[in-house]
Write a structure and sequence with these properties.
With 333 residues, the protein is α+β, with helices and mostly antiparallel strands. Among the domains are: 126 residues, OB fold (Dihydrolipoamide Acetyltransferase, E2P) (Beta Barrel); 89 residues, SH3 type barrels. Helices cover 25% and strands 33% of the residues. The strands form 3 sheets. Strands 7-3-4-5-6-15 form a 6-stranded mixed β-sheet. It has a 5-stranded mixed β-barrel with strand order 1-2-8-12-11. The longest helix has 36 residues. The radius of gyration is 33 Å and the shape is extended.
């Protein structure tokens, strides 16, 4: 790990959380109109509109290209944000209906998106070299732990494990959701699988306006699920854990249950990218009229058959109760 300034503190917003060693964040000011992130997003959206937007349908030919493969950077028309964003393809998934879905990572927004190919286009070359705006973070100097009973010592002992227990993962998630403010003091960074991980101490400001270190909170709340170690031991151990090698669209248990946008609907007023827009066929009025006429005739035939059947039953009943039986009663003794 390469060391950086210890007092490099940033107030942040967590965009996606998996476990204490795997979360993504952005500066809290990143959504301000004059922030460089907003300016970049606006420029990217306008450029993609000029290439792929529907308002250029008359002068732009349709674009055909092969589907992107994992690791490829693409442009995605996000129906949730109603603008174009940059994404990286994580995986291709084929469902039971043989439809291909793309598990994408929004590199500037910092969360996963599942989309069909309809909304995906090649990333313009001029925007491919800008680094991701969302950063990946990890809490430094803590390791996952669990207890086991040592029969020789006749006591419970705490030892390191390869993954975080679900209890401590959920505890930190609750604290992050309830925090008034979150900040990170960066201490080191590491490039892992082409992604830079920023290690540091995480701080949260609670509702009572008190700022506390997340490590201290987790030690108090989950004593038997966390181990505090030195810088040297942390550097040696953390790369061997499963906690860093998590798929970004899965949760800590490796299940695709994390709520994230599915880019497969078309909001009102937002058009599909024109390259694959499918026109809705006009209704065949004459065919519908013929179908309605046939259905009406069948209903009338069914009613007429029922009327005739009822009339026949009534006639049989009258014949059974003929004049010879009229006025008679049965004497049961």
């Amino acid at each position: 790990m390469s060391q950086i300034c210890n007092d490099n503190s940033d107030v942040i917003r967590i965009t996606h959380y998996i476990n204490p060693h795997c979360f993504w964040y952005k500066p809290i000011m990143a959504n301000m109109p004059d922030h460089e992130h907003v300016k970049f997003a606006t420029a990217f959206h306008e450029h993609c509109e000029s290439l792929y937007g529907e308002r250029y349908e008359v002068v732009r030919p349709q674009h055909t290209w092969e589907g992107p493969q994992p690791g490829t950077l693409v442009a995605l028309h996000s129906n949730q944000l109603q603008r174009w964003i940059r994404c990286e393809v994580d995986e291709l998934v084929v469902d039971l209906d043989s439809k291909t879905w793309y598990q994408l990572w929004a590199i500037d927004e910092g969360y996963p998106i599942k989309s069909c190919a309809l909304y995906i286009r090649p990333l313009p070359q001029r925007f491919s070299h800008e680094p991701p705006q969302a950063k990946r973070g990890a809490i430094i100097n803590i390791l996952p732990g669990d207890t086991r009973y040592d029969y020789l010592k006749d006591e419970q002992i705490l030892e390191p494990t390869s993954s975080w227990c679900q209890g401590i993962v959920r505890t930190l998630e609750i604290y992050l959701e309830d925090a008034v403010e979150i900040s990170i003091v960066q201490k080191a960074k590491l490039v892992l699988q082409k992604e830079t991980i920023h290690f540091g101490d995480l701080f949260i400001t609670a509702q009572n306006n008190k700022t506390i270190n997340v490590t201290d909170v987790l030690l108090k709340a989950c004593t038997n699920q966390i181990i505090v170690v030195s810088d040297q031991e942390y550097t040696k151990t953390v790369l061997t854990l499963r906690t860093l090698n998590m798929k970004r669209f899965l949760n800590n248990q490796g299940i695709d249950k994390t709520p994230h946008p599915v880019n497969n609907f078309e909001p009102t007023g937002v058009h599909k990218p024109r390259a694959q827009r499918i026109a809705k066929p006009a209704p065949n009025t004459s065919t519908e009229v013929v179908r309605d006429t046939e259905l009406t005739e069948k209903v009338h035939d069914w009613l007429e058959r029922n009327r005739q059947a009822c009339a026949t039953i009534l006639q049989l009943e009258k014949a059974t109760d003929g004049p010879d039986n009229a006025g008679k009663c049965t004497d049961n003794k």
